[in-house]
Amino acid sequence: MNNDDVNDDESETTSNVPPADTAGKPDDVVESELEDRDSDAESLDEAQNQEQEAEELRRKIAEIERKVADGN
Asked: Distance between CA 67 and CA 63 in Å, rounded?
């Protein structure tokens, strides 16, 4: 069998089709990537805020423990 008999038209056509979302609508890959980055940044900001709040609570707990130990 000769490779000249293989029809690559279908594979070329499907590779030029823009990606589709789950509803079958064309998906804007660049927009999706930007949204993912925004989501990652928000998650990081939220994690940093939670860490700051946790550190503040640790300081308050330590202060209360010192006062209790001093008898105040």
From this structure: 6
